[in-house]
């Protein structure tokens, strides 16, 4: 079921896509309109992917996996040893995990 807020987001995206498409067709050199069109389409795609993942029963955040706020420091500490292309501090990892646990996208 789509919430009232989600409905308003979708309406805003559709308005943006319609307005940007009209502007881009009217003036093919209007790169701002083309950029807005691409961003709106990207956001709509992310929302559709999230809805698809939920429909499939895919877990979308750490809380749904059963992680609690108290577990995050230990999880952050265990990931520091794995490394990657960018070295993160335990604090940075903990901030990322807190966001993932809250269910917020950004």
UniProtKB/TrEMBL annotation:
Domain of life: Bacteria
SUPFAM superfamilies xref list: Dehydroquinate synthase-like
Name listed for the protein in its UniProt record: Iron-containing alcohol dehydrogenase
Organism: Halanaerobium kushneri
């Amino acid at each position: 079921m789509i919430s009232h807020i989600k409905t308003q987001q979708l309406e805003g995206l559709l308005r943006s896509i319609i307005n940007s498409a009209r502007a881009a067709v009217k003036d093919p050199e209007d790169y701002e309109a083309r950029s807005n069109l691409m961003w709106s389409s990207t956001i709509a795609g992310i929302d559709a992917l999230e809805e698809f993942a939920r429909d499939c029963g895919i877990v979308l955040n750490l809380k749904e996996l059963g992680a609690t706020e108290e577990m995050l420091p230990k999880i952050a500490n265990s990931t520091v040893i794995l490394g990657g292309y960018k070295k993160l501090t335990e604090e940075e990892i903990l901030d990322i995990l807190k966001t993932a646990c809250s269910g917020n996208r950004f």
